[in-house]
């Protein structure tokens, strides 16, 4: 698969990029025709720093208490918190950065020692990819248990404009990819044409089939 990877650079900053591999892939929620490799933005100090600054410039006018990091976005989230604390409406503010735990039935939960970082707080949900919005909605359901309010959504990639009425601020959009498609698994035209699924994909990476 790797020999088919193409690099897509951000229109705002060419030092920020993701890899894309065309094919037929199955996620937990849908089937897509690209695997998006966001590894460098999640793990590279310099790229995560630059990405956080670009994303932060879109969020600096939103008052935020806590950032919930999903799908391996902790490094990006740390730089984003630093940027927001130094700019805009959150200038000088000490932001909380937390990651939920998944229980046995895959629900997001926060232990008692972390709940005070959510209770009554204005929360930014940070994810690697918003393809259908289901992961963000799951986080919103979690926030309701702890009386938190989602006020912003940040993502590396998004194929949707908004979730629950909140605009998704993303570094890359589906329009940046050539002919990106996302289908419900039972409506996938690639499956109907008998095209084999290349790999199972999630926020950790891919597993070839």
Share of β-strand residues: 25-35%
Q: Nearest-angstrom radius of gyration?
A: 17 Å
The coarse silhouette is globular
Briefly note the CATH topology name: Rossmann fold
The structure class reads alpha/beta
**N- to C-terminal distance:** 11 Å
Point out poorly predicted stretches.
none
Number of strands: 14
Overall tally of structural domains: 1
> Helix count?
6
Largest sheet: 6 strands, mixed
Provide the succession of SSEs: EEEHHEHEEEHEHEEEEHEE
- The CATH level-2 architecture is identified as 3-Layer(aba) Sandwich
Which CATH class? Alpha Beta
Fraction of residues in H or I helices:
25-40%
Mean pLDDT: 92
Compile the SSE list and pairings:
Layout: E1 6-9, E2 17-26, E3 31-37, H1 39-43, H2 45-59, E4 66-69, H3 74-86, E5 96-98, E6 101-102, E7 108-109, H4 112-115, E8 122-130, H5 134-145, E9 149-158, E10 162-163, E11 166-173, E12 182-183, H6 189-192, E13 199-202, E14 205-208
Parallel strand pairs: 2-13, 4-5, 4-8, 8-9, 9-11
Antiparallel strand pairs: 1-2, 2-3, 3-12, 6-7, 10-11, 13-14
Short description:
With 209 residues, the chain is an alpha/beta fold. It contains six helices and 14 strands.
Tell me what you see in this structure:
- This protein has helices at 39-43, 45-59, 74-86, 112-115, 134-145, 189-192, and strands spanning 6-9, 17-26, 31-37, 66-69, 96-98, 101-102, 108-109, 122-130, 149-158, 162-163, 166-173, 182-183, 199-202, 205-208.
- By secondary structure, it is an alpha/beta fold.
- It has one domain: Rossmann fold (3-Layer(aba) Sandwich), CATH 3.40.50.
- Helix 2 (45-59) packs across helix 3 (74-86).
- The protein is globular, with a radius of gyration of 17 Å.
- The termini are close together.
């Amino acid at each position: 698969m790797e020999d088919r990877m193409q690099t897509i650079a951000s229109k705002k900053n060419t030092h920020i990029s993701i890899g894309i591999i065309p094919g037929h892939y199955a996620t937990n929620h849908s089937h897509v025709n690209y695997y998006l490799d966001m590894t460098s933005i999640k793990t590279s100090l310099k790229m995560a720093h630059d990405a956080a600054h670009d994303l932060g410039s879109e969020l600096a006018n939103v008052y935020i208490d806590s950032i919930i990091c999903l799908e391996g976005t902790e490094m990006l989230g740390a730089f984003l918190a630093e940027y927001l604390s130094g700019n805009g409406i959150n200038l000088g503010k000490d932001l909380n950065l937390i990651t939920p735990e998944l229980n046995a039935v895959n629900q997001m939960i926060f232990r008692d020692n972390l709940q005070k970082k959510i209770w009554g707080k204005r929360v930014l949900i940070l994810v690697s990819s918003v393809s259908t919005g289901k992961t963000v909605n799951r986080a919103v359901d979690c926030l309701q248990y702890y009386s938190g309010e989602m006020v912003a959504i940040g993502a590396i990639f998004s194929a949707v404009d908004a979730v629950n009425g909140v605009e998704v601020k993303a570094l890359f959009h589906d329009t940046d990819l050539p002919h990106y498609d996302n289908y419900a698994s039972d409506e996938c035209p690639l499956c109907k044409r008998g095209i084999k699924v290349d790999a199972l994909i999630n926020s950790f990476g891919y597993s070839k089939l």
